[in-house]
Amino acid sequence: MNSSIEIGTDGAGRPVHVNVQELLATRLLVQGNSGSGKSHLLRRLLEESAGLVQQVVIDPEGDFVTLSDAYNHVVVNAGDYNEREIATMGARIREHRASIILSLDALDIEAQMSCAAAFLNALFDAPREHWFPALIVVDEAQMFAPSASGDVSDAVRRASLAAMTNLMCRGRKRGLAGAIATQRLAKLAKNVAAEASNFLMGRTFLDIDMARAADLLGMERRQAEQIRDLERGCFLGLGPAISRRPVSVRIGATQTHSRGGTHGLLPLPEAEPNDMRSMLFAAMETSPPPVPPPAPPPVAADELLRRISEGDDSTLSAPTPASVIPEAAAADIEDAVAAALRDMLADPDCAYHPESFLYQDFSVRCRMQRLARVPLDLAAFRRRFALAKGGIFDPAEPRWQEILGAAARLPDDMLAPFVLMARAAAEGLPCPDDDALGRAYGTRSPGRVRRLVEYMERQGAVVVRSDFGGRRSIGIPELGLSTEAE
């Protein structure tokens, strides 16, 4: 099968090809200022390789949805789904090898980052039998892997950056090949950009970006000036999938186009100044703003002091809205927290959802039980949810204190699998299998479960024994107990 596609021509008019098979193994980084032709380049790459490999496009501006008109791409409008549904779709996409365009243009920047993180994590965490090759194209990658904190919360930024890092650093073994585009290399996290071995560098003007682009292309600093002189749609390419030496590429034409097209100059509308004013201000002239209600008359100082001294504060206190929910008793709050956690764990996939989605779900469930406020902050929820996954819904119960004491040496994210093993040991049950430990830890990777147990053993929290039949039992030294062999 020929995996070579033509993306354009060099300075002599000869075709320039990209080896898609090699690209899947070595990844691609595209850089260029706004208007340099990055989106056109990505569109050409997607069109030419559409029949060779599964494609997934993270599209923050909705530019690539028109690919579905000519190819078999399915457009997913992220604004129509919640985070859990997006993650579920990500898993199904890998299973069915569907080419997808995830359109994020209806979301604000923080929601875009959260949605992209959930989607990429679902692709990354797919079962091994679904690790088919796929080209993952991320436009405006500096939004999802920023080099510095911005206006979004730290939790969202870390989640998005971790998902992009997994894609570029560890995605190859799972069949995921990242092809990312950014306006400025300085805005893109270095550990994300550094994993690409193929580069297509377009026009840029800032010295720091030209210097970094020249370094990636193996050019001398004095040659970096030519990057500033590149025309729109022209790029310098280098990499095992493109060329062993830097080559100038003029990107070829595409069959589809962006919804917005190219903005050009248009003649201004012809209208007399008075007509234009009437069109702009007609509604305001005919519909004056409503008159605000008159303010209550002021209370004289002597009268105010008299009312205070007599305890008559009827005119001072605002009426209490009927919708205000009274603060619940501590026992009722604890019952509501336990009920919310049980309801969440009724979903077998909840352990694999992102932490931000789980906390939002927990908050909604608490409000549905008429709690005036969410009783746990994010850190406290993380610990309680981990304990609940291990089967402990009320950590204040005396029977759990020894197990919680034994778990004190481990990080919070390991509480759930440790508690699961400790409860099995205390109740004389067989050792939990890797699937159960993986659900408690939030992973479908057997390798991560194995490394988790090995880490616990190095910390002295557990002791693993295997008999000649391959059955495993796990002992908890601090409790002096051991699970049955399984």
UniProtKB/TrEMBL annotation:
Pfam families: DUF87
Taxonomic superkingdom: Bacteria
Residue ranges of every copy of the Helicase HerA central domain listed in the record: 5-74
Protein name (Swiss-Prot/TrEMBL): Helicase HerA central domain-containing protein
Organism: Sphingopyxis flava
